[in-house]
């Protein structure tokens, strides 16, 4: 199943229109994923990785990033980045919210299987 998803993503990448300036393609991988996913990987207008350092201690922001990663997975077939799920688990444990810690760990494992 994973190979089929990767193949589907490869086909989308090949068929996605490239932004060009002169004869050079000027689009990075994050922008390409944003285009293919229809913005599903954005949290308040920014890609999830742009929030990683600044918001890493904010559990609500990390949950928003988890949601964006899952939406991106649904649209592209790419596995979600584990970082945001790990941060929610760590922050949940610090808050002694053990059920939430388990829930986010299980959610990630379920989604990448």
From TrEMBL:
Q: Where is this region: Disordered?
A: 1-20
> What ranges does the record list as Polar residues composition bias?
9-20
Q: What is this protein called?
A: Uncharacterized protein
């Amino acid at each position: 199943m994973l190979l089929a998803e990767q193949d589907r993503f490869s086909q989308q990448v090949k068929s996605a229109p490239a932004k060009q300036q002169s004869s050079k393609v000027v689009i990075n991988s994050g922008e390409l994923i944003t285009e293919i996913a229809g913005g599903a990987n954005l949290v308040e207008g920014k890609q999830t990785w742009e929030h990683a350092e600044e918001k890493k201690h904010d559990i609500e922001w990390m949950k928003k990033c988890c949601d964006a990663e899952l939406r991106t997975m649904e649209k592209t077939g790419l596995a979600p980045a584990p970082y945001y799920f790990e941060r929610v688990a760590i922050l949940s444990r610090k808050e002694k919210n053990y059920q939430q810690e388990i829930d986010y760990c299980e959610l990630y494992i379920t989604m990448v299987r």
